[in-house]
Write a structure and sequence with these properties.
The complex is a heterodimer of chains A (74) and B (576). Chain A has one helix and five strands, in the order ββαβββ. Chain A is mainly β and 74 residues long. Chain A has one domain (2-69): Beta-grasp domain (Ubiquitin-like (UB roll), Roll). Chain A has a five-stranded mixed beta sheet with strand order 2-1-5-3-4, with no helix packed on it. Chain B has 576 residues and is an alpha+beta fold. Chain B has three domains: 3-202, Aldehyde Ferredoxin Oxidoreductase,  A, domain 1 (4-Layer Sandwich), CATH 3.60.9; 243-420, Aldehyde Ferredoxin Oxidoreductase Protein, subunit A, domain 2; 422-495 and 514-576, Aldehyde Ferredoxin Oxidoreductase Protein, subunit A, domain 3 (Orthogonal Bundle). Chain B is 39% helix and 15% strand. Chain B is built from 23 helices and 17 strands. Chain B has helices spanning 28-39, 92-98, 138-149, 160-163, 188-194, 215-231, 233-242, 247-254, 275-284, 319-325, 334-347, 351-364, 372-383, 388-393, 397-404, 426-434, 447-450, 466-480, 490-495, 499-511, 517-537, 550-553, 567-571; strands at 3-8, 13-18, 52-57, 71-76, 83-88, 101-107, 116-121, 124-129, 154-157, 171-174, 180-183, 197-202, 288-291, 302-306, 312-315, 411-412, 415-416. In chain B, the strands form four sheets. A six-stranded mixed beta sheet of chain B has the order 2-1-6-3-4-5. A six-stranded mixed beta sheet of chain B has the order 8-7-12-9-10-11, with helices on both faces. In chain B, helix 6 runs antiparallel to helix 20. The two termini of chain B are 36 Å apart. The chains are: A mainly beta (74), B alpha+beta (576). The interface between A and B is medium-sized, with 19 and 39 residues.
Chain lengths: 74, 576
Amino acid sequence: MHIKVKLFATFRNGRFKEAGQERQEGTNCRKIILELGLTEEEIGIILVNGRHASLDHLLQDGDTLSLFPLVGGG
Amino acid sequence: MDKILRVNMTDLTTKLETVPAEWAGLGGRGLTSTIVAAEVPADCHALGPNNKLVFAPGLLTGTAAANSGRLSAGAKSPLTGGIKESNAGGTAAQMLARLGIKALIIEGLPKEDKWYSLHVNMDGVTIQEETELLGKGNFAVIEALEARLGKKTGILTIGPAGELKMTAANISVKDPDSKIRSHGRGGLGAVMGSKKIKFITIDDTGAPKVQIADPEKFKTAARTFAKALLDHPVSGEGLPTYGTNVLVNILNEAGGLPTRNFTTGQFEAHDKISGETMHDTIVARGGKPKHGCHAGCIIQCSQVYHDKDGKYVTSGFEYETIWGLGADCCIDNLDDIAKADNIMDDIGIDSIETAVMFGVAMEAGILQWGDSKEMLRLLTEEIGKGTALGRILGGGAGSVGRTYGVTRVPVVKNQGIPAYDPRSVKGIGITYATSTMGADHTSGYTIATNILNVGGHVDPLKKDGQVELSRNLQIATAAVDSTGMCIFIAFPALDIPECLPALIDMINARYGIALTGDDVTNLGKHILKVERQFNIEAGLTNKHDRLPEFFKTEPVAPHNAVWDFTDEEIDEFWNF
């Protein structure tokens, strides 16, 4: 399946802003996060197609996964 | 000994009063709202003789407590018709606190057509006639007053917008770099203008240190508190690196970034105005990515933004301003947005109300979507000069909507809705609807829990739990706004167990009292109820705790969400 991964804030350092990836069916968010060299603790927000998702969320073909560190504003 | 300074602009007299016992335990918003509710008739005209403008530093302001240097300003708002408290950084709060001034109350209206200034020092407050600086922008006022009275002078000032009593006018506060912070929302600059006070200067020469009842206990608590601020990823790392503008990309991804006057939830050019882009631009041009709005701030969410030639353009360049002029007006030029931010500081007009207003003005056809050059011209040539069109624009989003027959006008209680779409981030919709301040994201910032996963998570697209979330945050915020603390201490306070007890310990050590967590919650509840009662007496009832109709009927992309709370569900908010 094909997914799109988008990284934000410090996660972009030494990585990328946006990348298309080919993945096996049944891949969850955690697997992708760990393969990016990120730890679970570093993750602030996981969005799949603009909706909050958990580390165990199974990705589907065509999904967009957006990852943010713990940041905020107001 | 703490004191109250009272200025009567009708007979041009001043008084120094002792602090009544019932005000002794209050500061900041708790004190300004209590004084306004007690002394201002709720049905008065906000620009008439019976309104009062009140300034109060927080309970911890002037101490070594990190991030405690905020000043509250309060009055009846000419924008909302209800009670208003707006707080800001800068140098004035700490100077007033060191002078032992618990509150400065300005009442009445001058009989003659003359302008005045106030000067506050160890001896109290005096009134002088002012002629030289009338009509001047805030930067020129600060420069002239520093030349007149010295570099260290604290300054509160209004620009042309305040002099002309525009309902989006703000009150500017000089910051440690002689630039500007703002009591932005609710048109308090117009109230100061109605009293014909161009500026207030503060000289704290000879002021003693703020007294601490138990210095050892204070020191320990202050250390724990500061550690919590630095340890939390949002206040310790995210905010100092990217500022509040990191939210552009987050809200865009979550589909809650109001775009093109709230007609869609994502902005195509988000990357051009994002916090990440802004950070890289600031660093490349030799600006400052981190910067504090007051001495003692350790979060440093502010920044100094330079132009291509490395020259200062603006500081305190916030997400809400960038969102509003950016996504909501479809402007993708961050340099022009920065110029606008500077002009708004100079003419003294709220950058949130004005940004929301421009979205409505574009829908009205006053200028084209995305036309940043015309936006800059309207600011300088129309609002800044007080032309007839400028006064309509300077009245805010509601004013433009009414004048031009626009039906999509994002306001609650006539105050512009900021930077988070209430259809796709439903908790903040409850805050907009119910806040005593009119649409105000800071009064119960559910974005923390709806979007940022701070203090747990409540799904932004569902109704469940939103009323309770907003209620708890509004109660806590009313209490925090009374301490002089920056509201961003809420991020660590929601996640780090030691943070809030340390804040309460500091208050107890400062005053030699024994408040508990419950006392602080009860203070927050009490403040909200006092403000609510004022609003009811002013004619703002639960019927005004509603979002504009279009949020119910126009689904917002990408989630096609609508505002689907019933009136009864919203009214549940006040059951506490």
